[in-house]
Amino acid sequence: xxxxxxxxxxxxxxxxxxxxxxxxxxxxxxxxxxxxxxxxxxxxxxxxxxxxxxxxxxxxxxxxxxxxxxxxxxxxxxxxxxxxxxxxxxxxxxxxxxxxxxxxxxxxxxxxxxxxxxxxxxxxxxxxxxxxxxxxxxxxxxxxxxxxxxxxxxxxxxxxxxxxxxxxxxxxxxxxxxxxxxxxxxxxxxxxxxxxxxxxxxxxxxxxxxxxxxxxxxxxxxxxxxxxxxxxxxxxxxxxxxxxxxxxxxxxxxxxxxxxx
Length: 261
Prior knowledge:
Layout: E1 3-8, H1 13-17, H2 19-27, E2 31-38, H3 56-71, E3 75-81, H4 103-117, E4 121-125, H5 134-150, E5 154-159, H6 162-171, E6 200-203, H7 208-217, H8 227-230, H9 233-240, E7 242-247
Parallel strand pairs: 1-2, 1-4, 2-3, 4-5
Antiparallel strand pairs: 5-7, 6-7
């Protein structure tokens, strides 16, 4: 049995990017650990979602635990930082925000969990954090340094195959909907990395209902009428049925279909 640790910035990030890979690993008998840097205090939330006196960070913490149960995750840990908000917002200057944290200190917190779990593989994000969110970029920096400190030799950068998504946007434009976070013109898409940089494509269609259930658990961020949950099943499978990674240290062009657990 191996141990996979997935490091994410906010509750709901795990559902979007690595839920299927984690579910497959758990089903294969491996230990799966989710570490979340923040509790997502700066997320946008529709009126009426939060109960009286409930803080968003506490609510989103409960949501990630529900998502973890759907996926089959064995342990969830929070690194103890605050959500920084989107780039350029005043919240970037909060003294406890993750994006402004000392990388070495944050890496030491994460490394302690990696050592405790005797982690074999860790996932972080690509150097742009997928789409430029400052907390996601910090996950890249902190996760790589923590792997060095804990001597975890296998590091994967979770990302998006930009070419695949552009092709899908062109082939299925009617599936996007008015509330899609994607640009109207596929050529304006600036998510993930070009397809030739991807080293690992994991087919997660066998567990895609659990991935969708994990998304649904994050109702404060992904309401039932959202673009993500309204997508037809076949379109959802095309968009989310593969999870993409780049293995650090590997030459582009290798064609892995699973993480080495």
